Amino acid sequence: MQFAERLNNVETSAIRELFKLLGKPGIISFAGGFPDSALFDVDGIRAASERALTEEPGAALQYGATEGYQPLREQLAGFMAGKGVTDVAPSDFLVTTGSQQALDLLGKTMLGPGDKVIVEGPTFLATIQCFRLYGAEVISAPVDDQGVNTEALEKLIAEHKPKMVYLIPTFGNPSGATLTLARRKKVLELAVKYQTLVVEDDPYGDLYFGEAPPPSLLALSAQVPGSRAWLAHCGSLSKVLSPGLRIGWLVAPEALRERAVMCKQFSDANTSTFAQATAAQYLKAGHMPATLAQVRKVYAERAQAMGDALRKELGDAITFVAPQGGLFLWVKLTGARGQLQDANVFAQRAIAKGVAFVPGTPFFAQNPDNATLRLSFATADVAKIQEGVARLGQALAA
Ligand code: PMP
Predict the structure, then answer these.
(1) Cβ(200)–Cβ(217) under 8 Å?
(2) What angle do CA 143, 146, 150 make, to 5 degrees?
(3) Domains delineated in the chain
(4) Ligand 1: which of 15, 36, 173, 206 to mutate, most ligand atoms within 8 Å of CB?
(5) Half-sphere CA count of 348, side-chain side, radius 13 A
(6) What pTM value is reported for the model?
(7) pLDDT in tens, 12-56
(8) What is the pLDDT of residues 103-114, one digit of tens each?
């Protein structure tokens, strides 16, 4: 069969291949990007879905507006207002089937063969693949522990004149890094100066362990004249409430949003009305603050446990910056004292010892750093984390 040429630009994800090994009995996995299903507020979501079916059965089970279910758009506007975004109206939200769909719609509306996009090196693998599927050339900007290096980013923007700059400014996947306030302002200024769309992907911003992170680019754009016209923001309930609901959203300049709505119309017509009505009921009932407090507490304990265990078991063989939020810990093998420095080899040895993680290589659109790897601390409890990291120590010594 002759498939579309665009498929030649992407490969099946290396991560998916690795996931096939995870079924092995006894494996402790730090590989997934999932939240912990044991933390889902099942009772709260069940009650919200029952209210959706009792109070609004016709709407909850019918087709709906492509833009999204109005009561959910209102709740989302309230949710974002709680995070400092006070000048965005319900009608500014396009509800999407996960934020993954928002990224796909951005690709569909903005990118064609030969267009350039700048992303962080490393970044979310599915975004790289999605943008490549539209024919884009994906260029990598360097990231440090304060997020993307804005000086390097400006040079790359000036050189490549990209259609888009895609960033995960808060608790990045996989880097765990958070962009500083000063750099956030700089990014918004660059968007205006070079008239380049900046995409803020923010599924993790609510998952902070101590102090709240700096305000989102969307919140800050109110302070940088002209920047709102060059900013798209993707949000999601997946990591804080449930990815099974598939509720995400896009806030974007009107002309872009309208085109994204048109593309969504031809794709899935609308995001599940039942899921939207359930999410709206959940938010309306005011459950979110308690849910957030609970997930933050559990992930903070696990992040701490993983950091402590890594220092104890792997010592100078690695460096990492303790994450302040999110689900991931990004590690670099130092190669100190002749120790292993290739994370792909380390991953194979680790599987043999009964522990899995994702090597960093596939997260780079260009110039992969093979000494890096991503550990998720989200789904294993503290005892499993300690056992898994001990196995990592053994794998490294093997
Ligand atoms: N963006 C990032 C950075 C992610 O890590 C993920 C999920 N792993 C998504 C978007 C997509 O999430 P969802 O479609 O479930 O909202």
Answers:
(1) yes
(2) 60
(3) 5-40+290-397 (3.90.1150.10), 42-288 (3.40.640.10)
(4) 173
(5) 4
(6) 0.97
(7) 666 666 667 677 789 999 998 899 999 999 999 999 999 999 999
(8) 999 999 999 999
